[in-house]
Amino acid sequence: MTSLADLRDEYEFLDADDRYRLLIDLGRALEPMPEALKTDATLVRGCSAAVWVYPTRSDDGTLHFLADSNAAITKGIIALVLLTVQDRSPVEILTTDIEAALAPFDLRNQLSSNRTQGIPNMIALIRETAGRYAG
Question: What is the pTM of this model?
Answer without folding.
Answer: 0.89
